């Protein structure tokens, strides 16, 4: 049973959602504010498998809470937000969120995203790679430590951003179909993840400050264009 921290200030919404999550095998802990959520995550995540974070909190800005959570634990965070614009989503991903759901959301969509990040976390803990480092011009990807640097300067990435970059970097120049990327990075075939993929690609381009590094192959997917210097 996966332990889930639900951060939601509306008790009626939390009660209904907790009941649904419980029916699908989750052990739910409810936090009504950002401070309650942070206390629940002391000292090291307290064994939670997923944090479901509503950004409309009464005591702190939800984005600020997300950043604090990421500093305390590597537990996957799914943001719940009414802001549907790409800039807001990228901001959340930059703070360390693994995924997001836009209100009003379908319960099936929410469950699919929770299961996806849960499966990915279990997979990462259970497996390990044989390669230790990938180099692409000024870009250095250290697989064991999950660290990325450009020209020697560290570039902090979220869990999914790193997974996406590492996947594309394994075969520079090769086009990865959207369906393949979603399957390998998100461990799901659910079609709705496609928009999340686009946001993660945009975030990677911005963080690495190399917009031409990941090329969009229209109607197919993406490929990494290896830099020459």
From TrEMBL:
<keyword id="KW-0597">Phosphoprotein</keyword>
<dbReference type="InterPro" id="IPR011006">
    <property type="entry name" value="CheY-like_superfamily"/>
</dbReference>
<feature type="domain" description="Response regulatory">
    <location>
        <begin position="3"/>
        <end position="118"/>
    </location>
</feature>
<dbReference type="GO" id="GO:0000156">
    <property type="term" value="F:phosphorelay response regulator activity"/>
</dbReference>
<dbReference type="GO" id="GO:0006355">
    <property type="term" value="P:regulation of DNA-templated transcription"/>
</dbReference>
<feature type="modified residue" description="4-aspartylphosphate">
    <location>
        <position position="54"/>
    </location>
</feature>
<feature type="domain" description="OmpR/PhoB-type">
    <location>
        <begin position="131"/>
        <end position="226"/>
    </location>
</feature>
<dbReference type="InterPro" id="IPR036388">
    <property type="entry name" value="WH-like_DNA-bd_sf"/>
</dbReference>
<dbReference type="GO" id="GO:0032993">
    <property type="term" value="C:protein-DNA complex"/>
</dbReference>
<dbReference type="Pfam" id="PF00486">
    <property type="entry name" value="Trans_reg_C"/>
</dbReference>
<dbReference type="InterPro" id="IPR001789">
    <property type="entry name" value="Sig_transdc_resp-reg_receiver"/>
</dbReference>
<feature type="DNA-binding region" description="OmpR/PhoB-type">
    <location>
        <begin position="131"/>
        <end position="226"/>
    </location>
</feature>
<protein>
    <recommendedName>
        <fullName>Sensory transduction protein RegX3</fullName>
    </recommendedName>
</protein>
<keyword id="KW-0804">Transcription</keyword>
<dbReference type="GO" id="GO:0000976">
    <property type="term" value="F:transcription cis-regulatory region binding"/>
</dbReference>
<keyword id="KW-0238">DNA-binding</keyword>
<keyword id="KW-0805">Transcription regulation</keyword>
<dbReference type="GO" id="GO:0005829">
    <property type="term" value="C:cytosol"/>
</dbReference>
<dbReference type="Pfam" id="PF00072">
    <property type="entry name" value="Response_reg"/>
</dbReference>
<dbReference type="InterPro" id="IPR039420">
    <property type="entry name" value="WalR-like"/>
</dbReference>
<dbReference type="InterPro" id="IPR001867">
    <property type="entry name" value="OmpR/PhoB-type_DNA-bd"/>
</dbReference>
<keyword id="KW-0902">Two-component regulatory system</keyword>
């Amino acid at each position: 049973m996966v332990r889930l921290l639900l951060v939601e200030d509306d008790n009626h919404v939390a009660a209904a959602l907790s009941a649904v999550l419980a029916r699908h095998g989750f052990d739910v802990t409810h936090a009504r504010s950002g401070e309650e959520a942070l206390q629940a995550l002391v000292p090291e995540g307290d064994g939670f498998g997923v944090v479901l974070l509503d950004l409309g909190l009464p005591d702190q800005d939800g984005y600020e809470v997300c950043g604090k959570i990421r500093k305390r634990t590597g537990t996957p965070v799914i943001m719940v937000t009414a802001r549907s614009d790409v800039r807001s989503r990228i901001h959340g991903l930059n703070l360390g969120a693994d995924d997001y759901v836009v209100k009003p959301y379908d319960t099936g969509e929410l469950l699919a995203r929770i299961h996806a990040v849960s499966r990915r976390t279990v997979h990462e803990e259970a497996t390990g790679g044989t390669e230790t480092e990938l180099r692409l011009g000024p870009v250095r990807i250290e697989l064991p430590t999950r660290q990325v640097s450009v020209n020697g300067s560290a570039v902090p990435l979220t869990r999914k951003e790193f997974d996406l970059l590492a996947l594309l970097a394994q075969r520079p120049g090769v086009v990865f179909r959207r369906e393949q990327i979603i399957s390998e990075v998100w461990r799901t075939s659910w079609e709705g993840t496609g928009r999340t993929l686009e946001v993660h690609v945009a975030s990677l381009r911005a963080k690495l400050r190399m917009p031409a590094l990941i090329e969009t192959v229209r109607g197919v997917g993406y490929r990494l264009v290896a830099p020459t210097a």
